[in-house]
Specification:
The protein is of the alpha/beta class. Helix content is about 55%, strand content about 10%. The chain has 15 helices and 10 strands. A hairpin with a 7-residue loop joins strand 9 and strand 10. The two termini are about 15 Å apart.
Length: about 375
Amino acid sequence: MFESLKKKLKSIFSFPKEEPAQEKPIGETQEIPEPAKAPEPAVEEKKEEIKESPRAPETGHDIEEKTELLQEPAIDEKPKKSLFSKAVSRITEKKLGEKEAGEILGNLRTALLESDVAYEAVEKICDEVKGATVGASVERGKTQETLKKALADSLKDIMACERPDVEKLIEAKQGVYLMLIFGTNGAGKTTTIAKLAHKFKKFRPVVAAGDTFRAASIEQLEEHSKKAGFDLVKHSYGADPAAVIFDARKHAEARKSKLIIGDTAGRSHSNANLMDELKKVARVNKPDMKVLVLDSLTGNDIYEQARIYDQAIGVDAIILTKTDVYDKGGACLSASYVTGKPILYLGTGQKYGDLRDFDPDGIIKKMLG
């Protein structure tokens, strides 16, 4: 995952450094104090004026003069330091101009769009990078580093949602914890449910076969229940999915289980009737966590899917599937940006253990190489 985006970003930030070889000789030379000689004549002139004062012979004034002469160099130290720091900053720093950053930002915008990052998210990222860099003082030779840091900060901001500790939430719940799983057709919900049941097997999970529409969906879960070792509650095809999950709760309470994972039929986010049915399932069973499963291979459509599901049902967390065969990487940014909700896990294969915790910092490091 992210290999394509990583290559694009690497090419954007691989421009030549700004003559770093010239920095040290200029920065280390002792010629810098030359501007500091300017205050010295001023001290000399003040000394001469004091000597010519008619009050020089007076003892009391002599003491005052000595005091003044001792204090004046201290007054002149401030401009000396200021001149030195200004001279150093001119040599070691520069202002990053809009023209210089413009080409880089243009390439960045293209790379992000080509990597399935939603347009709205791309504009936000580019605006933040521009705002943090253009006109800012940048140490010479570190333009690339400065831009990369600004990009990393923007990416972190998009994926900044706090990721919940699901185990602690299940343990803290008085009674049975219900996770409701939903998403579009073919997103990988059934396999993801089996992975979740395997991951949280210590809570003796009960799976509710709430997809009573798709052919063989119940049989598929039955097969997983035998292999992964979880209880399955099912009704016949065409049954009310809300009733299936309701019965699964009774079963879980009877056997002292702590977790129910409710399956639902895959449905297009654009089908209003099916979305209304899902609303009913959520309203009747009051899930503790509503989890949207998204197929990372869907590309740019992820943004619209996540937006509509969040508006209609309310998304608490996201699981991205098929990331092992997805190298663009923009899906997680789009999903996080539009919902403002955390990504819990990444599906990375067909085995039950192939459900990896989502690590934003690790992903950003991988993106930026």
